Amino acid sequence: MSEDTWELRLYVAGQTVKSMTALANLKTYCEKHLKGRYRLEIIDLLEHPQLAEGDQILAIPTLVRKVPAPIRKVIGDLSNHERVLVGLDLRALDPS
Amino acid sequence: MSNQPLPRITPFSQLPKARTGIEGLDEITDGGLPLGRPTLVCGSAGCGKTLLGIEFLVRGILDYDEPGVLMAFEETAAELSANVTSLGFDLPQLVADKKLRIDHVHIDRAEIDETGEYDLEGLFIRLGYAIDTIGAKRVVLDTIESLFSGFSNEAVLRSEIRRLFRWLKDKGVTTVITAERGEGTLTRQGLEEYVSDCVILLDNRVIDQITTRRLRIVKYRGSTHGTNEYPYIITEDGLSVLPVTSLKLEHTVSDEVVSTGVPDLDSMFRRGGLYQGSSTLVTGTAGTAKTTLASSFALEACRRGERCLFFVFEESPAQLLRNMATVGLELQPFVESGLLRIEASRPTLNGLERHLVTIHRIIGQFKPQTVIIDPISNLVSVGSHSEVSSMLTRLVDFLKVQGINALFTALVSGNRAQQEITDEGISSLVDTWIHVRDLEGVGERNRGISILKARGMAHSNQVREFEVSEKGIRLLDVLVGPTGIITGASRLAQHIQEQARYIAAEQEAERRDRDLERKRRVLEATIANLRTEFESVEEELRRVNSEEQQRHDSMAEERRQLGHTFSAHPPATPNGSGA
Fold first, then answer.
1. CA dihedral B373, B378, B384, B385 (to 10 degrees)
2. Class assignment of domain B17-112+119-241?
3. Under 8 Å CB-to-CB from B421, ≥6 apart: which residues?
4. A37 to chain B nearest CA, in Å?
5. Which of A46, A59, A86 sits opposite B119 (nearest CB)?
6. Cross-chain residue pair A49–B106, CB shorter than 8 Å
7. Nearest CA in chain A to B132
8. Check: CATH 3.40.30.10 for A6-88?
9. Which of A42, B42, B290, B423 lies at 20 to 30 Å from B370 by C-alpha?
10. Using the beta-carbon criterion (under 8 Å), do A87 and B122 form an inter-chain contact?
11. B116 vs chain A: nearest CA distance in angstroms?
12. For chain A, what are the domain ranges?
């Protein structure tokens, strides 16, 4: 499982404060826990509104963990460290 | 003072409305839902909220060329399509034509974790995208309350929903938002706070084991609307709100008169029939030829070349045709030529509303000039008292407004006939009330017909006996005996008696004639005798008279001669006195 590359998508709508915070937070976590094992895609729905339907995006910002399955979603600006790790199921993976 | 005119309210332009195309709803809302504004449709499970939404969209697309977006929070596009296929709505086709867009919003709490601040911009973007791609004018959000199960931060949710409605308004799309009914509130999450333009409440209740669905417009800002609860049903063609009782009594009336199909019965009315477009009630106990009367009416209408719609709740069409053929009412040819349509169904098949809607729909399709319902009393078995009465009011009203000749039959039991019908409140609705009944005499039953009321027309007050023969219905002349009118066998007996009396009277008259003749002859003879007698008396008298005259004359002569002698030569008289 740890061999898998994580695929993460962050849906934002323009350069809002919440989106920027979320992105910054996400990058911190990834560097810390998934270094080299993740691919992050940032989708701006203002530019690609048609993509919102596919991942059932309602809230902004939304972080979607596409791989590994199952799909997990974390919404909000990702400011709560604990909850993000639980949400993404990162904790079990990385005991540190 | 009272003559002073009321202050005039200057008419303002009406709130722009989007017609729903849903049967009856546009009438109640006085033209449709508020254009470009959100409307809340709330109701408990199984009310047809989603259906109302979908129909609003589909009709919008098909009838008014307004593309629509359906944002479904509960069901997928495939499920929705399958659900409404039976109603003849082909959603996939509409989607392919780019007239409709279905966006299924899947919310699973288990998949989502919340950390920190967020908003629902994603929903806005999806909706905005869907609206813009097809140029939608109508939007349905079904059921937006599902959001509350997906997100825990209610404060955010509420402010976002408020923003969403504001945003939809700004977009100028006519929106229908469905919501589940809550305890003591219109919606579970109090959505009515956010949607203030129009709120429609759907209700599904079971009374006496019969489900009736009711629709009520709770509010409609800036517009008049019907305030009652209106029954509605889900038919094969979609939702159908019961066409409303018109709020005003202002249907036009006709001065024309139509025949009842029974000439003798026509003659009981001063004008020789029923007014065109009036409603007639035929009441009677079992087996008093109500259906036959109704069929005569139908046949007459067909003969005039009018379309006639015949609802039967007791017989199958074939049975009706056969039975009526035996009494000389040949309906078959008119069924074949399409002038007569017979709709048969069991009253218990449907709830009252459904019956009414069916009747409405068929009338709408067939456009008859004459409608017969035989019998309306059977409908009573499927509804409570007040319901039946309100349904009939609607029905009668509807027919009157359409100017359709209506004839209803009603089965009543025994003596309380008038009471019953008055109780149902039908009697005050109909213009003409004909009552047929048994006239029970010694060992037999006969049928009597009378007119209880006929608005705007003088009518006979007699109870006429009538018979149903192979030539149809024939009214018999009134025979009044010592104890009232005479019918049946008594009528025959009376007839024979009368004949005997007539013969006796004739003989008596002849005898008297002969008597008279005899007397005349006797008298004439007597007169002749008397005349002869008179002549002889006259003769006698004449003779006496002439003798008298002669005597008188000779005496006068003598006296004259005597006088002459004395005056000239009295002494020289030769034949003197001897002096």
1. 70
2. alpha beta
3. B281, B283, B410, B412, B427, B433
4. 22
5. A59
6. no
7. A49
8. yes
9. B423
10. no
11. 5
12. 6-88
CATH number of B257-477: 3.40.50.300
Q: Please check whether residue B294 is in contact with residue B282, taking contact to mean a CB–CB distance below 8 angstroms.
A: yes
Q: What is the ipTM of this complex?
A: 0.89
Considering only alpha carbons, which residue of chain B is nearest residue A73?
B112
Q: Which of residues 28-47 of A touch B (CB under 8 A)?
A: 45-46
Q: Is A62 on the interface with B (CB under 8 A)?
A: yes
pLDDT in tens, chain B (579 residues): 445 555 554 445 678 888 888 878 888 888 889 999 999 998 888 888 899 999 999 999 999 999 999 999 888 889 999 988 888 889 999 999 999 999 998 888 877 888 888 888 889 999 999 999 999 999 999 888 888 888 888 888 888 888 998 999 999 999 999 988 888 788 888 777 777 789 999 988 876 666 778 888 888 888 887 778 888 878 777 887 775 555 556 677 788 888 888 888 888 888 888 888 888 988 888 888 888 999 999 999 999 999 999 998 888 999 999 999 998 888 899 999 999 999 888 776 666 777 777 888 888 888 999 999 888 877 766 666 667 777 777 788 888 888 889 998 888 876 665 666 665 667 777 889 888 888 777 778 888 888 888 888 888 888 888 888 888 888 887 777 666 667 777 778 878 888 999 999 999 999 999 999 999 999 999 999 999 999 999 999 999 999 999 999 999 999 888 888 776 665 555 554 444
Task: Tell me the residue type at B438.
Answer: D
Subunit contact B116:A72, Cβ cutoff 8 A = no
The three-state secondary structure class of B160 is helix
Q: How far apart are CA B522 and CA A38, in angstroms?
A: 152
Question: CA torsion sign, A27 to A33 to A36 to A38?
Answer: negative
